[in-house]
């Protein structure tokens, strides 16, 4: 048996019948015929090769005759395969003509190299102000010489906490972008635009995804790391830093007859005032002083800071009630977040207001007693 190997991409293989005439002196005065046929081994006719069953016509004294057998380029990743062929004697063949050898085996070496691609690395970090981020797609364990055949991938982005488009416009969405790999290449890159949106982000580290999928190319091609994560670090614009605000004093003191007490909330960490507008709300709470009797309580009074404001105040009416009371009473005022871009930190969210009672004549102490303290009865 004769053995030989061919590459799947060779196109065809030449099979030959060899004859000899050890007992005959050439020239022979007549032509003759030899049969040649193929049979499946692990290779399958049509799928892997073109089967034949032919009669080869030899001329006078001719000792070799060949025929081509098609080898199929099947584009399937597979192990080594083979088929066999056999030479057969026709009934009219002179017995003195020998066939050598009478059979053979053809091995087909697969040429379909797996291509495995994906993002590497799969995590990227970009600053909001850098303009764009570059992502890398690689062929893992590339064949010597790079990609053995061209192929294309398609790119699509996907929102996470970062949003493409209005209203956030954190990055520019990518839809259906094509990345081309040519023969010999081992990696490709693509860019995604990052927008400096000048917004105060609630999350300083937002993220989105980029996904790849096969677009076209001769198989087998496998995408094993199809998704990359891009984290956007928000630029620390001054207008986005935390604002610290709270009551100016922890205790305010007033007198019952003054009429109002003014309570002020101040921004403590920006000397030039607030970098952005926001609102906090003030609500009073009874202590020993009672709303409606001693003061006029308030609920959710908005203290609206504009850009540049370092303090905003509100008044609480103090009632001059003419009652005879303890020398002082108190109530409280509390602050809570209302509206505006975060973060807002309320550093002193509660203050105490002490009301000193007016000394009305009718409320002055009356001193009474015997005078003189001693009496004599004569």
From TrEMBL:
Q: Which domain of life is it from?
A: Eukaryota
Recorded GO CC terms: membrane
- One annotated GO biological process: cell communication
One Pfam entry name: Calx-beta
Keywords per UniProt: Calcium, Ion transport, Repeat, Signal, Transport
Q: Which residues cross the membrane?
A: none
Q: Which residues form the Calx-beta domain?
A: 104-210, 228-336
What the entry lists under PANTHER family is as follows: NA_CA-EXCHANGE PROTEIN, ISOFORM G, SODIUM/CALCIUM EXCHANGER
Q: What is this protein called?
A: Calx-beta domain-containing protein
Q: Which organism is it from?
A: Geodia barretti
């Amino acid at each position: 048996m004769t053995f030989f190997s061919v590459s799947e991409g060779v196109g065809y293989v030449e099979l030959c019948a060899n004859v000899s005439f050890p007992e005959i002196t050439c020239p022979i005065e007549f032509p003759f015929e030899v049969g040649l046929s193929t049979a499946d081994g692990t290779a399958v006719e049509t799928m892997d090769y073109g089967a034949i069953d032919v009669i080869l016509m030899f001329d006078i004294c001719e000792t070799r005759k060949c025929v081509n057998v098609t080898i199929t380029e099947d584009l399937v990743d597979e192990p080594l395969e083979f088929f066999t062929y056999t030479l057969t004697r026709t009934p009219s063949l002179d017995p003195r003509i020998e066939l050598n050898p009478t059979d053979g085996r053809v091995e087909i070496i697969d040429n379909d190299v797996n291509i495995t691609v994906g993002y590497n690395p799969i995590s990227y970090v970009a600053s909001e102000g850098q303009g764009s981020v570059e992502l890398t797609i690689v062929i893992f364990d590339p064949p010597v010489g790079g990609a053995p055949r061209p192929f294309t991938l398609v790119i699509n982005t996907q929102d996470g906490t970062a949003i493409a488009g209005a209203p956030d416009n954190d990055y520019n969405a990518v839809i259906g972008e094509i990345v081309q790999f040519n023969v010999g290449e081992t990696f490709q890159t693509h860019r995604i635009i990052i927008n400096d949106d000048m917004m105060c982000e609630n999350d300083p580290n937002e993220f989105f995804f980029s996904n790849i999928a096969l677009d076209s190319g001769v198989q087998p091609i496998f995408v094993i790391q199809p998704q990359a994560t891009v984290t956007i670090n928000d630029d620390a614009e001054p207008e986005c830093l935390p604002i610290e605000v709270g009551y100016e004093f922890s205790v305010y003191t007033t007198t019952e007859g003054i009429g109002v007490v003014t309570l002020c909330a101040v921004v403590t960490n920006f000397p030039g005032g607030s970098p952005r507008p926001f609102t906090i709300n003030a609500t009073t709470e009874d202590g020993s002083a009672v709303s409606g009797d001693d003061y006029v309580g308030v609920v959710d009074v908005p203290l609206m800071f504009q850009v540049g404001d370092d303090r905003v105040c509100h008044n609480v009416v103090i009632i001059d009630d003419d009652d005879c009371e303890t020398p002082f009473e108190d109530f409280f005022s509390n602050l809570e977040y209302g509206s505006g871009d975060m973060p807002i930190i309320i550093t002193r969210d509660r203050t105490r207001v002490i009301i000193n009672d007016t000394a009305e004549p009718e409320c002055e102490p009356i001193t009474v007693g015997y005078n003189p303290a001693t009496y004599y009865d004569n």
